[in-house]
Amino acid sequence: MAAAGLGGIAASHPADPPPEPRPPAPPEPAPATGAAVARHVTGRLLRRHRHKPRRARGFTILHVRRNHRVSLRVEPRGRIFRRIGVRTAFGSRQTLTVAARRGRWLGVTTTERPDGRLAWIDGRSDALSRHRTRVALRVDRSRRRLELRIDGRTRRSVPVGVGASGSPTPTGRFAVTDKLSGARYRGVYGCCILALSGEQPRPPADWRGGRRLAIHGTPGRAGAFTGSSAGCVRADRVTMRLLMRRVPLGTPVFVTR
Fold first, then answer.
1. CA-to-CA distance for 249 and 151, rounded, in angstroms?
2. Which of 21, 42, 63, 127 shows the smallest number of beta carbons within 10 Å?
């Protein structure tokens, strides 16, 4: 009965229809011409370039806005150790140079930490306006040369005087904080002065000119430097006039051995 029942069920259903024929395969694409390949490659490069952000050239500098003050911290989110206003001690516009970043926090070179350590500020502060400079100065102590660099390229290389062996010019990263006339100091520092954010840790024993680092001229009508200094970088009058024209406040200064 079971076998007959299964046979009856099978007989009561028609056979499966034959399979439909497969559609013809699409024709092979014609080989791309040279122009087509070029368009394809160019399109891919353009799309890749469109999504890749350009790295900004130069260095970020910050100005303190008028009627504002900025808090300086010992580390990101750390203790506030100083608040600075819109002017430096010499009366120049307060300009900070960004040397490091940690999220929203910016590490800046400042005279308030002249020993090479950075002060940290909140990059989201409304008290700051951002700018960029493509100029940098490099001083090679061993070669006694100063380089004016723009966009990473040396535009001018000149001989300079540096600190004597007993009071060497300190190495590290500094920034130009003030551009001053030498007449303000009776010509002792030549025609012009670029005050820097650092200090001289080892001034001569009989030195009474303070510890502040600077790039300055040499007294006398010729304005040519001779010998070593108490720690500052000394240049001739022509070089100093050039630097006063071309170097903005906030320009980073790198001193190497």
1. 17
2. 21
Give the tokens for residue 49: 């370039």
Torsion over CA of 184, 190, 192 and 196, rounded to 10 degrees? -90
How many domains does the structure of the chain reveal?
2
Q: Which domain holds residue 204?
A: 135-256
Taking the C-alpha atoms of residue 226 and residue 191, their distance in angstroms, rounded to an integer, is 15
Tokens of 163: 């600190």
Last residue of a domain, one of 113, 133, 153: 133
State the pLDDT confidence band at 239, using cuts at 50, 70 and 90. very high
Q: Name the DSSP letter for residue 93.
A: B
Of residues 62 and 14, more confidence is placed in: 62
Q: Given a cut of 70, is residue 71 above it in pLDDT? A: yes
Half-sphere exposure for 53 (CA within 13 Å, toward CB): 3
User: Is the same domain home to 102 and 175?
Assistant: no
CA distance 236 to 173: 23
